[in-house]
Design goal:
Strand content: 5-15%
Strand order of the largest sheet: 1-2-3
Distance between the termini: 27 Å
CATH topology: Rossmann fold
CATH architecture: 3-Layer(aba) Sandwich
CATH class: Alpha Beta
Number of domains: 1
Number of helices: 9
């Protein structure tokens, strides 16, 4: 959703806005992207609160990969709230973040993702380098292949681990207790403020270990949405699991982040679902 490796107008929300206006011109559609790199489901609620003044109608909650560690290492990153200027004024200056990330990258030998992981107390994860999307050299292709392999090892490390405390009040089993709770609180907040909500499951990872863990996560999430909000027509769960094949280099340059072509496919898949939710009385 953040649009990693793409310009802002090539990210999913902008492409979704275009598709909705072309396919359903009876109303004016506008897409606003509140996604942020490294944030997970925990950030949904503070971001919705911070931008409530935008008076949005439909909330699209699109996330999952950044919470794949699960209860073993919950992702509590909320980037904007790290800025005292944003907390005081609602304006987020990008320069301090850019300088801080540059310093983090220098200290970690260029491995910015490892630096962020260390701040959350979780093991180092796969590193993604933005330039891989546009390079066509053999070295870049080999690097992308190495990224895909490392993802498989990462999920293998997690696949057999569980966390004490088996089930949440929402009925979600470990390791997805924190994830379900974060999504539920965001959905409840949106409903309480008169919004409609579409919870979207991301494309399936290409490797077997990652796919199995992602399927477990999203199945648990969909079941929670059905239990907690099945009576509420303003809430829907929609999966784009098979909308793109992440093993296809044409739609994903590292088997996780989407190219512009991949973003277009996901936006097109989401358009009908957003339209249906928006028209719900």
């Amino acid at each position: 959703m953040f649009g990693y490796g793409a310009t802002w107008e090539e990210a999913i929300p902008a492409l979704l806005e275009r598709d909705l206006n072309q396919r359903f011109p009876e109303r004016k559609w506008r897409g606003l992207n509140l996604g942020y790199n490294t944030e997970g489901a925990f950030a949904f609620l503070p971001n919705l609160k911070a931008f409530e003044h935008l008076d949005y109608d439909v909330v699209g909650l699109y996330e999952g990969y950044n919470d794949m560690v699960g209860d073993e290492g919950p992702n509590y990153v909320v980037v904007r709230e790290q800025s005292p200027i944003f907390r005081a004024t609602g304006y987020f200056p990008i320069l301090p973040l850019a300088l801080r990330e540059k310093a983090m990258a220098l200290r970690s030998g260029g491995d910015l993702d490892a630096s962020y992981s260390a701040t959350r107390g979780v093991p180092p994860k796969t590193v993604f380098r933005p330039g891989a999307a546009s390079r066509t050299s053999a070295g870049a292709l080999e690097a992308a292949a190495a990224i895909a392999d490392s993802m498989g090892r990462q999920f293998e490390h997690l696949s057999n681990k569980t966390v004490p405390g088996t089930t949440s009040e929402l009925g979600c089993p470990s390791p997805w207790v924190s994830y379900c709770d974060s999504v539920s609180r965001a959905v409840r907040y949106a409903l309480d403020h008169g919004k409609r909500v579409l919870v979207v499951g991301q494309p399936q990872p290409a490797d077997a270990q990652g796919r199995a863990r992602h399927e477990s996560q999203q199945r648990t999430l969909a079941e929670m949405i059905a239990r907690q909000f099945g009576h509420e027509p303003r809430v829907a769960y929609f999966s784009v699991a098979t909308a793109v094949d992440l093993a296809d280099r044409n739609v994903s340059f590292d088997q996780m982040h989407l190219s512009v072509a991949g973003n277009r496919l996901v936006a097109a898949a989401m358009a009908d679902a957003i339209h249906r939710v928006a028209l719900t009385p």
